C-alpha cells in the first residue's frame, strides 16, 4: 500500500476540534483504497509561543517539508498579539512552501439556505484562485517617525511577473477544464494602476493560449457586489492575495457560512507539501464548546485527497457532505456528532 505522510497542525481555538473530525472522515474515506495515512501531529500555535516565544522553529519547518501534505486547523489567539501567529506560522508556511495557489471553491450545496433570495446551486459554483505568496501579504513596507503625529506606515503590494503569471496560468488551466470555461480577473486597476496593469497584461497574454476560455474583468468593489446580487456571473476567478481573502469570506457567507468553506494552499509544482485548511479562523468565541461546524475542514480534506491523487475518495466525502447538508433540520449537532455522521455517510458509499 502507498503511504501518505501527513503533518497535522491542529493549532488554536476550534482548530483541534475541527481537525479531529477532518481526520476521522479522511480515514473512513481512504479505507477502501490501497492507501495508508501516517499522521504526525505538531503542537504549534499559541501554547508553544507562550512557552518558548517561537512560532515555527526551523527544525520543525524542515520536518514539515518532508511530508506529503499538511493539514491545518487554524491559528490565532486573543492572548497573542495579532499577527504573531498568523504571520509567523501560517503565512510563513505559505511563503516558504511556495503555496502560490490558494484554491477556494465557492459552491452552494443543494438544500443549504443562502441568505440570497432565489438562488439555486446552479447559480453559485465558482472556483476562486487566490494568489498566495505576494501582494500586500509579502510584508514589504515599514514605519517612519513611529509614535509621533507624523508617523507614516506603508504596506507595499508586491506583484512580480513571475508570481502573477504562474497563478494566472493555473487559473486558465482550471477554467479550460470546466463546462463554462470563463475566467474573471478581479482587481482594482482604476486605482492600483501599476499592479493592475501587470495583472491585466498577463491575463491577456496567457489568455491568447486559451482561446476557448472567455475572459472577463471586475473591479473588486463591483465583484463584492456581484458575489451577492449576481453570483452566476462567475466561474473561475483569479485575484490578488488580499482581494481573494476578502471575497472568499463573502463567498462563504452567501453559500451557507464560513463553517462550510474549504481551502487548499497549493504548490502545483510539488517542490514542497501543499497545505489544506478551512477558510475560517480559530473562532475563540465558540472554542472548546463543541459548537464549531467541522464541514469546512472535512471538505478541505477532500481537496487534499484530490491533490494527492485519490479523487474517488474526495468525491465520496463531497457526496457525504452534500447528503448531510440536504438532511439538516433545525436540530443542533455537536462538532463530533457532525463528524460521526459524515464518516458514517462516507462509509455507506464505500
Ligand atoms: P473566525 O473565522 O475565527 O471567526 C469569525 C466568526 O465565524 C466567529 O463568530 C466564529 O464563531 C464563526 N466561525 C468560524 N468558524 C466556524 C465554524 N467552523 N463553525 C461555526 N462558526 C464558525 O475569524 P476572526 O474572528 O476574524 O479571527 C479569529 C482568529 O483566527 C484571529 O486570530 C485570526 O487572525 C485567526 N484567523 C486564522 C485563520 C487561519 O488560521 N487560517 C483564518 C482566519 C482568521
Ligand atoms: C485566511 C486568513 C489568513 C489570510 C490570515 C489569518 C493570515 O484570513 O486564511 O483567509 O489573511 O490569508
Ligand atoms: Mn481570511
UniProtKB/TrEMBL annotation:
Kindly give the Gene3D superfamilies that the UniProt entry links to this protein.
Answer: Isopropylmalate Dehydrogenase
Q: Does the keyword DNA damage apply?
A: no
* Alphabetical list of InterPro entries matching this protein: ICDH/IPMDH, IsoCit/isopropylmalate_DH_CS, IsoPropMal-DH-like_dom
Under the heading Pfam families, the entry gives: Iso_dh
State its Enzyme Commission number(s): 1.1.1.85
Q: Where is the Isopropylmalate dehydrogenase-like domain?
A: 5-342
Q: Which UniProt keywords apply?
A: Manganese, Metal-binding, NAD, Oxidoreductase
The organism's place on the tree of life at top rank? Bacteria
Single GO molecular function: magnesium ion binding
Q: What class of enzyme is it?
A: oxidoreductase
Q: Which cofactor does it need?
A: Mg(2+); Mn(2+)
Coiled coil, from the record: none
Q: This protein is called what? A: 3-isopropylmalate dehydrogenase
- Record organism: Nocardiopsis algeriensis
Amino acid at each position: 500500500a502507498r503511504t501518505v505522510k501527513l503533518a497535522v497542525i491542529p493549532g488554536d481555538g476550534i482548530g483541534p476540534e475541527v481537525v479531529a473530525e477532518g481526520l476521522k472522515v479522511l480515514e473512513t474515506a481512504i479505507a477502501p483504497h490501497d492507501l495508508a495515512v501516517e499522521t504526525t501531529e505538531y503542537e504549534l500555535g499559541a501554547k508553544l509561543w507562550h512557552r518558548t516565544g517561537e512560532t515555527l522553529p526551523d527544525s520543525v519547518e524542515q520536518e514539515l517539508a518532508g511530508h506529503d501534505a499538511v493539514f491545518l486547523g487554524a491559528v490565532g489567539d486573543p492572548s497573542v498579539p495579532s499577527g504573531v501567529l498568523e504571520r509567523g506560522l501560517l503565512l510563513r508556511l505559505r511563503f516558504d512552501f511556495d503555496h502560490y495557489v490558494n484554491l477556494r471553491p465557492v459552491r452552494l450545496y443543494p438544500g443549504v439556505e443562502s441568505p440570497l433570495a432565489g438562488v439555486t446551486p446552479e447559480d453559485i459554483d465558482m472556483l476562486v484562485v487566490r494568489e498566495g505568496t505576494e501582494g500586500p501579504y509579502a510584508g514589504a513596507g515599514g514605519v517612519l517617525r513611529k509614535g509621533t503625529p507624523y508617523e507614516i506606515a506603508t504596506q507595499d503590494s508586491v506583484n512580480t511577473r513571475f508570481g502573477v503569471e504562474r497563478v494566472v496560468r493555473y487559473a486558465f488551466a482550471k477554467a479550460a477544464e470546466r463546462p463554462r470555461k470563463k475566467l474573471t480577473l478581479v482587481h482594482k486597476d482604476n486605482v492600483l494602476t501599476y499592479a493592475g496593469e501587470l495583472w491585466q497584461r498577463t491575463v491577456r497574454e496567457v489568455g491568447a493560449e486559451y482561446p476557448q476560455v472567455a475572459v472577463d474583468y471586475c473591479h473588486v468593489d463591483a465583484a463584492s457586489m456581484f458575489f451577492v446580487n449576481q453570483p452566476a456571473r462567475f466561474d473561475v476567478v483569479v485575484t490578488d492575495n488580499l482581494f481573494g481573502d476578502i471575497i472568499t469570506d463573502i463567498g462563504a457567507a452567501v453559500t451557507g457560512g464560513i463553517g462550510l468553506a474549504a481551502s487548499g494552499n497549493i504548490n502545483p509544482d510539488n517542490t514542497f507539501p501543499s497545505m489544506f485548511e478551512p477558510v475560517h479562523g480559530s473562532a475563540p468565541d465558540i472554542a472548546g464548546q463543541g459548537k464549531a461546524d467541522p464541514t469546512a475542514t472535512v471538505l478541505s480534506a477532500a481537496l487534499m485527497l484530490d491533490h494527492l491523487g485519490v479523487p474517488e475518495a474526495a468525491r465520496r466525502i463531497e457526496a457525504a457532505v452534500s447528503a448531510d447538508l440536504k438532511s439538516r433540520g433545525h436540530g443542533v449537532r455537536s462538532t463530533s456528532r457532525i463528524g460521526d455522521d459524515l464518516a458514517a455517510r462516507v462509509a455507506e458509499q464505500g
